[in-house]
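Researcher: Let's do a round of design. I'm pasting the structure tokens now; please hold your answer until I've finished.
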């Protein structure tokens, strides 16, 4: 068995359908991917895929280090293409499956920040965002703040997080004055935070099949499901946008 750490799952009645696909996914998919996995199983009869989550940069490094993943879903098409060039994702397997926009959120009771412009105030607020070096939401946030002429003001008091979800957690606990996250992250927080502004920049989520997977047919079937009508409906319900095309 390729994934011994999943062996106990196969002892549960109804799950003994072969090895579940192992999915490495961007942290902003934490809520929606389990629903997609259940729908995939219901539709195909395959074992329910099992996902692990992290920043897209972290997932990409896992692929490079040989982690036993069958499919990745990254919020950075550039990373997916780079993995393909290195022979780590199957050529032709990349599919754009969703998009997501940036959201500026604040703790529920905070009134310090009401718009992007407030991040550049003389007494700059503490702002959490994903580390731009390896978190797509953080890289997009930097691009947006640079375009607004605010990056140099934000940087000294920026709190860099390992993922957009971690940045959101800082805002939920009121440990920062504001956080830049994906819009779906903001929606997942309920009343713990308030969305005060958005940005037009959108991230594209790209799914790809890892070279060497022992289940290439199921892996391709899963990425096709994500891009198909049933998968797209679940993405939309979770607040994700549609891709302008299926190519990354």
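Researcher: That's everything. Go ahead.
Model: Designed sequence:
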């Amino acid at each position: 068995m390729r994934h011994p750490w999943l062996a106990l799952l196969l002892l549960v009645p109804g799950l003994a359908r072969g090895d579940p696909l192992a999915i490495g996914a961007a942290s902003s998919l934490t809520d929606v991917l389990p629903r997609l996995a259940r729908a995939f199983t219901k539709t195909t009869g395959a074992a329910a895929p099992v996902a692990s989550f992290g920043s897209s940069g972290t997932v990409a490094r896992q692929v490079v280090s040989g982690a036993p993943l069958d499919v990745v879903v990254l919020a950075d098409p550039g990373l997916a293409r780079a993995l393909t060039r290195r022979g780590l994702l199957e050529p032709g397997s990349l599919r754009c499956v969703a998009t997501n926009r940036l959201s500026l959120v604040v703790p529920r009771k905070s009134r310090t920040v009401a718009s992007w412009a407030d991040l550049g105030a003389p007494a700059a607020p503490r702002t959490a965002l994903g580390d731009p070096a390896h978190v797509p939401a953080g890289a997009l946030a930097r691009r947006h703040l640079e375009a607004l002429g605010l990056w140099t003001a934000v940087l000294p008091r920026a709190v860099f997080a390992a993922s957009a979800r971690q940045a959101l957690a800082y805002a939920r606990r009121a440990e920062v004055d504001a956080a830049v996250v994906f819009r779906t992250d903001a929606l997942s927080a309920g009343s713990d935070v308030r969305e005060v502004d958005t940005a037009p920049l959108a991230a594209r989520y790209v799914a790809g099949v890892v070279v060497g997977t022992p289940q290439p047919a199921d892996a391709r079937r899963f990425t096709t499901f994500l891009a198909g009508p049933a998968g797209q409906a679940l993405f939309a319900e979770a607040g994700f946008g549609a891709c302008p095309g299926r190519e990354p």
